[in-house]
Amino acid sequence: MTLITRRNLIVASAGGLLAGCDSIGKSATGRDILFKAEAVHRSLQRTIMNRDALAREFSPEDMSPRFRSNGTRNPNTDAYRALAENRFVDWRLRVDGLVTRPLSLSLADLRAMPQRAQITRHDCVEGWSAIGKWQGPKLSAILDAAGLRDTARYLVFHCADSLRGGAYYESIDLIDAFHPQTILAWAMNDRILPVSHGAPVRLRVERQLGYKHAKYVMRVEAVASLDGVGRGKGGYWEDVADYEWYAGI
Fold first, then answer.
1. Which residues does the UniProt record annotate as the domain Oxidoreductase molybdopterin-binding (predicted)?
2. Who has the most CB within 10 Å: 7, 35, 75, 117?
3. Which are the contacts of 124, defined by CB distance < 8 A and separation ≥ 6?
4. Which CATH class, in words, describes the domain spanning 55-241?
5. How far is CA 16 from CA 6, 19, 33, 95, 154, in A?
6. How far is Cα of residue 176 from the mean position of the Cα atoms in its chain?
């Protein structure tokens, strides 16, 4: 069964200019049409929609037989290879910035926390979707352990991968950070998260498009403003390709 969603209608509205992810990648005109349509929707969404609403969750029977990876498939740096070869035993997630109790969490620490598992649809800005299962602790529980300061407004995710010589980064506000479906996933489809999907940990922020779901997360930084993050737009693709910062679906 084909799901008719707002996302499908936006992609369809671009007609022949958007014939899948390859066409989007090659057509600046196609990207412009898609982003303008998305921008109009998100502007209205921020004004009239309930951002606390849950993303739809699916049954195991709905899971996609193939779930392609988005973005980087392997950071392939010396530091990352060393972590991966040791099954990320030495990996630590830093949680710092505007917090009262900075944290350094191992993968075992994250697995020992209360877990949330959810089967959701991943919508990529390139025009494809897939349904998969994700498991990990709620981001809100980690933030509660760290103790956000009153001045914190955003979270910045610093990642192990890089593009065009620059480290990848993304950000969300506290509304999405404390959403019950926002997790740091270490498992996918009941298996350890594979490298191509962001091992050891990736962000799942289920009511936003796929590029907001930062992979290979190394550090979560609480900040008061996005002005000092990259070029000031809050994310790698937002800075280099004018993607919208709020990618709600």
1. 90-223
2. 75
3. 21, 70, 209, 210, 211
4. alpha beta
5. 18, 6, 12, 45, 38
6. 11
- Residue 195 is classified by DSSP as G
Beta bridge partners of 94: 104, 219
Residue 165: pLDDT band (50, 70, 90) is: confident
* Other CB atoms within 10 Å distance of the CB of residue 141: 17
Q: Is 168 helix (H, G, I), strand (E, B) or coil?
A: strand
Supply 12's token pair: 């369809």
The pTM of this model reads 0.82
Domain boundaries, the chain: 1-49, 55-241
SS3 label, residue 145: helix
Residue pLDDT, tens place only, 16-61:
333 333 333 444 554 555 455 544 544 555 555 678 899 999 999 9
Enumerate residues 6+ apart whose C-beta is below 8 A from 212: 170, 172, 203, 205, 235, 247
What DSSP element (H or E) covers 83? helix 78-85
Torsions phi, psi of 105, nearest 5?
Answer: -110, 135
Over the range 213-235, which residues count as b (16 or more CB within 10 Å of their CB) and which as e? bbbbbbbbbbbeebeebbeebbb
Cα gap 54→50, rounded to integer Å: 9
Render pLDDT for 172-181 as a digit per residue (tens, 0 to 9).
999 999 999 9
What does the pLDDT average to over 184-204? 98
How far, in Å, CA of 242 to CA of 244, rounded?
A: 6
